[in-house]
DNA sequence: GTTAATACCTAGTAGGTACTCAGTAGTCCT
DNA sequence: AGGACTACTGAGTACCTACTAGGTATTAAC
């Protein structure tokens, strides 16, 4: 008669995946400082020690989430580069992808701001991530402009900024359309019309 | 012989000002979820109930900080509008001001992301702030472009995005120069060369 | 110098925090 | 069926959380 028989014990990989999903949602809502192991455990239908059995510690939990996102990101970036030919198309593909996963965009928006302070457990991760991203953009732009590093910063800033505004007001701000308009001016003098 | 005589009891206004300063710094570092009344009290050299005597509650503390910032913002915006004539000059003045107060920029960057979730005590404040900001930009732009709302979003997004990148890497990213380059492309077709 | 106001403290409450230890029970292999 | 493995729990630790009640001591007014 115990109704929760439907969720007995899961194999480690499956449970871990569930933990990461739940944690992603909760960090997006409350940030890492506002996250409690109890809430994550509740969201997974197990006890706190049960949760700790899988992730070891709260920092370990954050690390698991970020590692998982990193894998997914690398995969999707490869796809975007594979399908698209120009820097502009690659950026548009990234934005389109983000427009379909607001939870994850919010996770990164919150963590990116929270981790500005050096003591944050994700500080180094995000510092490295930002550098990698900027280098990636700059590489794509190196033949299109005399200042690829500067343009890369502006592209990344515009993407991040639009995302935050869109997250706060998704009803009135169309992320993809806004990026399209932004890209129009960013790439106007850069992107030679070889794509037409 | 008690050495701490140098900081006895302060008049309410002065103490309140100190509390706001300390809280601003701490929220910038850890966010509101990560802020503890104990830390604020320690930073002010008094006990937690002493602190609560002035602000009533943790939410009251946040409100005090935001109210104070609002006043300062209104004042500085008036100055910017008074001195500058064009929309572009007003934006540049805002950016220059922000470049000189990284702590406060960080406070807003962290709170803006944290308060995306509706339950956050500053959620409504930031929603209203974003709307007011966008309306202000749009008003400045209404004679310069057929889509003032859209351009306003892009301007705000670029400012916010550049600020976050600058906060993480102030050594390599020059906020004012980056904004200048961004403004160049944003205003290229808008700003009629009447200013020359 | 007495009274009134108030900045601030001591002590305590009720509950939340991450985390540990030792054991139970379900699952897989043979 | 028996044994190894492991996902998971119950109970507990040490500490931090915002907040309150009631009192003290300093300052200001007259």
From TrEMBL, chains A, B:
- UniProt keyword annotation of RNA-binding present: no
Residues spanning the signal sequence: none
Query: The HTH tetR-type domain covers which part of the protein?
Result: 13-73
Which residue windows are transmembrane per the record? none
Which Pfam families does this chain map to? TetR_C_6, TetR_N
UniProt source species? Paractinoplanes tereljensis
User: What is the superkingdom listed in this entry's lineage?
Assistant: Bacteria
An example molecular function term from Gene Ontology annotations = DNA-binding transcription factor activity
Q: Does the keyword Transcription apply?
A: yes
Q: Which residues bind DNA?
A: 36-55
Q: What is this protein called?
A: HTH tetR-type domain-containing protein
Which key words are in the record? DNA-binding, Repressor, Transcription, Transcription regulation
């Amino acid at each position: 008669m115990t109704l929760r028989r439907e969720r007995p014990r899961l194999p480690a990989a499956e449970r871990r995946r569930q933990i990461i999903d739940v944690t992603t949602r909760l960090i997006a809502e409350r940030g890492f400082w506002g996250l409690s192991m109890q809430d994550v455990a509740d969201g997974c239908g197990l006890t706190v020690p049960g949760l700790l059995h899988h992730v070891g510690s709260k920092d370990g939990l954050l690390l698991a989430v970020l590692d998982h996102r990193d894998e997914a990101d690398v995969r999707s970036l490869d796809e975007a580069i594979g399908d698209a030919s120009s820097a502009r198309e690659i950026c548009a593909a990234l934005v389109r992808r983000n427009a379909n996963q607001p939870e994850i965009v919010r996770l990164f928006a919150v963590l990116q701001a929270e981790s500005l302070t050096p003591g944050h457990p994700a500080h180094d991760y995000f510092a490295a991530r930002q550098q990698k991203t900027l280098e990636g953009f700059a590489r794509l732009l190196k033949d299109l402009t005399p200042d690829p590093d500067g343009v890369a910063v502006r592209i990344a800033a515009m993407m991040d900024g639009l995302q935050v505004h869109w997250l706060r007001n998704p009803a009135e701000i169309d992320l993809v359309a806004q990026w399209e308009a932004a890209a129009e001016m960013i790439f106007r003098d850069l992107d030679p019309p070889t794509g037409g």
